[in-house]
Amino acid sequence: MEQEKHQQKQGQDMIRWIALVLNLFAGLFLLLAIYYIGWSLWNQENYSSIIVYSIALSLSFITVRQVLHNRKTFVIFAIAAVIFCLLGVFNVNVTAMFY
Fold first, then answer.
1. Residue 90 lies in domain
2. CA distance 21 to 68
3. Whole-angstrom Cα distance, residue 47 to residue 55?
4. Which of 5, 27, 31, 36 is the most buried (most CB within 10 A)?
5. How far is CA 17 from CA 8, 20, 24, 44, 50, in A?
6. What is the rounded CA–CA span in Å between residue 94 and residue 99?
7. What's the number of domains the chain is made of?
8. pTM of this prediction?
């Protein structure tokens, strides 16, 4: 009984650590997207694929985190990640709306 509680606590600690790392990666990719949005505005160059794929990766990390925590909102994040991936595949110019 005591060993089961210890293993369960270790499992929860591991899930918390993985969720923290996933949040870190999601935040870094969102910052990358914001950076390239600003860079696109400043130089009026097209960095749409970098922006779209970094947002898609960020949403993918958030989706995995939601699945780890058994939340049903992962479907929303997964759909959004797929939409952003498709925007990248079809090479949609998302920076054109800023200038």
1. 2-98
2. 12
3. 13
4. 36
5. 14, 5, 11, 40, 28
6. 10
7. 1
8. 0.83
Residue 75's identity, in one-letter code, is V
CA 61 to chain centre: 4
Q: For residues 85 and 78, is the Cβ–Cβ distance under 8 A?
A: no
Ramachandran sector of residue 70 (left: φ over 0; alpha: ψ -120 to 50; beta: rest): left
- Residues 52-91 have pLDDT tens digits of 999 999 999 999 999 998 889 999 999 999 999 988 888 8
pLDDT digits (tens, 9 = 90+) for 6-20: 788 888 889 899 999
* Paired tokens of 98: 């800023």
